[in-house]
Automatic annotation (TrEMBL):
Its main location: membrane. Residues 1-24 are annotated as: Disordered. This is Amino acid transporter transmembrane domain-containing protein. It comes from Triticum urartu (Red wild einkorn). One of its GO terms (molecular function) is L-amino acid transmembrane transporter activity. Keywords: Amino-acid transport, Membrane, Transmembrane, Transmembrane helix, Transport.
């Protein structure tokens, strides 16, 4: 009898273990788990750099063009405003996750809205990440190929395809093989440092040109001639939102922390660091190039990609990319708070959540409308 009970208990324990194995994240979340030997939790600085690297990407190159469109003062204020909204949306996710002991964004959406909520988030993350990968590898392929061709001349071995292949195999592949995000803290710090170096170089050149008197006065406010110019201002919103998307990595970083109370200071420090880099980059780049500032990232899809149905692909990427970023960054976190699966949302939280959804939907809708009108005008001209 005792043996039978023991076997039943063993079977139940095994079943529970199997269920737990199916629902736990790929990355270990506890020190006791396999893969955390001699690991005492991620450091504060390492977590800040890892989150900052998630935020700062190829989108930083699109911010000066947004400043050109919005004007210097409104543009810089918008960078700060979106950073504050991002901090609020991440705080919503983390508070709900800590209350329910949830270790991933997808799990939280599943708890709040079931399977379809989780699928909607996963689809948005996939779309957003495909855009990030395309813009990042495309920029890397063009940049590094140009350097190698300048040094050694044009050869097969330094063509764009070979540069991307070597970078993927010998840089990306080793980095993604680490079991813990904290292992990437040094490379993340290097990435942030390179962004700061870019800011310093841009600032230095701009200051020298200001001293020499060769820089024109930057446009402080947008030029509004008619209603269409007002709609066009909203096309800068998706660029600003995309620049701060990091929500899908917050849980992975939080899982590696011994002290969960550090999560909020880490998020604030990272957002402050990235906002400073964004503001400096936008200000000095726009000061340097003025109205000649060119678009990047999203606007790159306006060019001919040299593939069949290129223009159709361009438009699909612009529409879906802008929408996915808004969903991940603001609408989904606000929806979780409104559903309030753990009963922790205050009246202020729900008012903020509704405000975020309204702002996100209205601004993104107007931006998409403006893009659609530009597409139709382009076809009429053609």
């Amino acid at each position: 009898m005792g043996v039978g009970n023991g076997s039943a208990d063993t079977n139940q324990q095994t079943a529970r273990n199997e269920i737990r194995d199916e629902t736990t994240p790929l990355l270990p979340v506890k020190v006791e788990e396999e893969g955390f030997h001699e690991f005492n939790g991620a450091s504060f600085s390492g977590a800040v750099f890892n989150l900052s690297t998630t935020i700062v990407g190829a989108g930083i190159m699109a911010l000066p063009a947004s400043i050109k469109m919005l004007g210097l003062i409104p543009g810089l204020l918008m960078i700060i405003f979106v950073a504050l909204l991002t901090e609020a949306s991440i705080d919503m996710l983390i508070r709900c996750s800590h209350q329910g002991k949830i270790t991933s964004y997808g799990w939280l959406m599943g708890e709040a809205y079931g399977q379809w909520g989780r699928i909607a988030l996963q689809a948005s993350v996939v779309i957003n990440n495909i855009g990030d990968v395309l813009s990042g590898t495309s920029s890397g392929g063009v940049h590094h190929r140009g350097i190698l061709e300048g040094w050694f001349g044009a050869h097969l071995w330094n063509s764009r395809a070979i540069v991307l292949l070597v970078t993927t195999l010998f840089v990306f592949a080793p980095l993604v093989s680490f079991k813990r995000l904290d292992s990437l803290s040094y490379t993340s710090a290097l990435s942030v440092a390179l962004a700061v170096v870019f800011v310093v170089i841009t600032a230095g050149i701009a200051i020298i040109k200001v001293i020499n008197g060769t820089v024109a006065m930057p446009k402080l406010f947008p030029e509004i001639d008619d209603l269409s110019s007002v709609w066009k201002l909203f096309t800068a919103v998706p660029v600003l939102v995309t620049a701060y998307i990091c929500h899908y990595n917050v849980h992975s970083i939080d899982n590696e922390l011994e002290d969960k109370t550090q999560t909020k200071p880490i998020v604030r420090t990272s957002l402050a660091l990235c906002s400073s880099v964004y503001i400096a980059t936008s200000f000095f780049a726009y000061l340097l190039f003025g109205d000649g500032t060119l678009d990047d990232v999203l606007a790159n899809f306006d060019s001919n990609l040299g593939i069949p149905f290129s223009s159709v692909f361009n438009d699909v990427v612009r529409f879906t990319g802008a929408t996915a970023a808004v969903l991940i960054g603001f609408i989904f976190p606000a929806m979780v708070i409104l559903r309030d699966p753990y009963g922790i949302a205050t009246k202020r939280d729900k008012i903020l959540a509704v405000t975020m959804i309204v702002l996100a939907v209205v601004s993104n809708s107007v931006a998409l409308y403006s893009d659609a009108m530009n597409i139709f005008r382009r076809k009429e001209v053609a």
